[in-house]
Amino acid sequence: MNKFAILCIKFYQNYISKILPKSCRYYPSCSEYAIWQFKNNNIFLASFAVLMRILKCNQLFKGGIDYPVVGKKFTSISLSKQDKVADIEFWLVPCKNSKFYVIKVLDSLRGKH
């Protein structure tokens, strides 16, 4: 379900939003926020968070920077010398308890080590 939601959002970004004026009051934009939510949360939590974000994206709210907050539980892992290093797509910055801000790595910075 999450992949289908992401495909719908990508369709909106590529075809519909290009013909509409830019009107999002937040960074990341509401559609990017939605993609990040669906990649890091289950369908119900992501849908609720996206709905709340879209309802806040109007003149009655100040806007600004509003990164998604997701819940994650981590288990310890050990890396051996044979393991390959994976590209980091998102940084999870601790917020409170087991909640984290999701911050996307800029595509222009990938591959530059």
Automatic annotation (TrEMBL):
Keywords: Cell membrane, Membrane. One of its GO terms (cellular component) is plasma membrane. It is a peripheral membrane protein. It comes from the Bacteria. Could be involved in insertion of integral membrane proteins into the membrane. This is Putative membrane protein insertion efficiency factor. Pfam families: YidD. InterPro entries: Membr_insert_effic_factor_YidD (IPR002696). PANTHER family: MEMBRANE PROTEIN INSERTION EFFICIENCY FACTOR-RELATED. Belongs to the UPF0161 family. The gene is yidD. It is found in: Cell membrane. The keyword Membrane applies.
